[in-house]
Specification:
heterodimer; A: mainly alpha; Ferritin; 4 helices; globular; B: mainly alpha; 6 helices; about 70% helix
Chain lengths: ~140, ~170
């Protein structure tokens, strides 16, 4: 379970980092507030994971000092694309937590996964990306 | 666990003496049951109907996926203008049904989805979208409950189905 929780934590840290870059390139009010809310949400999930890992006496691994972006972010289109990429990644990381948790902990993991999948969909819609939905969110492609 | 074991060890003999059975009689009874099992195993008792296997706990989720696919098909028939938007969602539900049938280990009902029960909903496009959204919200709750209750090997699939239904709620807005 530690491995999967650490994976989710790494994805959340990456999302927090990415939203810092994404926000810079957005100007529409709905998109700017969407990015801000998303970042807050990822910080909340990050704190949850740090607490869980503390409870398990493993402690959270330190966040890396920097990240390699999958592509350059230079404008609104690439910023929205990065937001989709990041949320898909977070959903995948939380999906891996489902089989190694039970009851409330699994419910928490599913909430986190679902929220990211829904946010990815919202960013797809802002970006005009189709298809908007996928049958199995979080399943590695 | 040690506590349970201890209790079992302590109460076992007590129960035996309470019931008045001697050890020999209990062993004989066990032997008779074993013999019966052996006979059944040999096929001598094949006249007995096979016990009906308990339905898989995912059967209701499968039925729901098929019924949702049918509801989308009916909506597309009634509202041609929504076809482009709704068709991918209907396909998502069919993909869920196919995957659930595989996990349950039974073939999909022939014809796929869209039974005659899925009557074309009358009303405006907006009303159709609202009705589908309500159905997706209810279905998401079912999938969440199924995911939380499921054994580990089914959790990821059911989580994806729950998340997909949540995405649909947004896509129908």
């Amino acid at each position: 379970m530690n491995e999967q929780l650490a994976g989710a934590l790494a994805a959340e840290e990456a999302a927090i980092y990415a939203y810092g870059l994404i926000g810079v390139h957005l100007t529409r009010v709905s998109e700017v507030s969407g990015a801000r809310d998303s970042e807050q949400e990822h910080r909340r999930r990050r704190d949850y994971l740090v607490d869980r890992l503390d409870e398990l006496k493993t402690g959270a691994p330190p966040a890396p000092a920097g990240y390699r972006l999958p592509f350059e972010v230079t404008n609104r289109a690439s910023a929205l694309k990065l937001a989709v990429h990041v949320e898909d990644g977070v959903a995948q990381a939380w999906r891996a937590v489902l089989p190694v948790t039970e009851k409330n902990a699994r419910n928490d993991a599913l909430s986190a996964m679902t929220d990211s999948a829904v946010r990815a969909t919202a960013w797809r819609r802002f970006a005009g990306i189709t298809p908007l939905t996928m049958a199995f969110p979080g399943r590695p492609s | 666990m040690p506590d349970t074991l201890e209790r079992m060890v302590l109460t076992g003999p007590v129960r035996m003496s309470d019931s008045g059975h001697t050890r020999r009689r209990i062993l004989t009874a066990t032997g008779a049951i074993m013999a019966g099992a052996t006979l059944a195993g040999c096929g001598l008792l094949d006249d007995e109907p096979d016990p009906v296997p308990a339905p898989d706990p995912l059967e209701p989720l499968l039925a729901e996926a098929l019924s949702l696919a049918g509801a989308f098909d009916a909506a597309i028939l009634a509202q041609a203008a929504l076809a482009e938007r709704l068709t991918p969602l209907a396909e998502d539900h069919r993909a869920h049904a196919a995957e659930l049938a595989k996990v349950i280990g039974k073939p999909l009902p022939s014809g796929g989805a869209a039974g005659p029960s899925a009557a074309a909903p009358p009303g405006s496009a907006a009303e159709t979208l609202t009705a589908l959204r309500t159905a997706e919200q209810a279905a998401q709750k079912t999938a969440v409950a199924a995911c939380v209750a499921a054994p580990a090997e089914r959790a990821a699939l059911l989580g994806s189905i729950a998340a997909c239904r949540a995405i649909h709620v947004l896509a129908l807005r």
